[in-house]
Description:
59% helix, mainly alpha
Amino acid sequence: xxxxxxxxxxxxxxxxxxxxxxxxxxxxxxxxxxxxxxxxxxxxxxxxxxxxxxxxxxxxxxxxxxxxxxxxxxxxxxxxxxxxxxxxxxxxxxxxxxxxxxxxxxxxxxxxxxxxxxxxxxxxxxxxxxxxxxxxxxxxxxxxxxxxxxxxxxxxxxxxxxxxxxxxxxxxxxxxxxx
Length: 179
């Protein structure tokens, strides 16, 4: 089993607890926990499209929600970017195949289920326990719409990321902030 933060149970709980927790994390800019949740969902049903979306949003050098472990991410560590580049090439090649060939060879193109697991221990090595305790307490009471300018700006930027995640197959993001 992959490393989990001590707050993973809230994101993995399901139902209103999960949605409230994820919304609170989004509102507060604590996207490392959203990353953890997405990695867990990815592990359940991996796809190249999901891997690429996680990488583009959380791991690439210019990721808008880059996770807190620079030493394991590109450009310092090219391991992940190399795999994602390979997934992109595979996706492009698959899209050019005829339907029957694509179906027949699809199992050969399944991405690594544990692709992002090596990042989790590094991301959560310095959890901000006080901030998370507050977030969990507030999330359990329901989440209010963002009020500060910074929160509104962050949540607005999240809408595009949310769309990208939904398009990649992360249906669990349906209940998070956004249209």
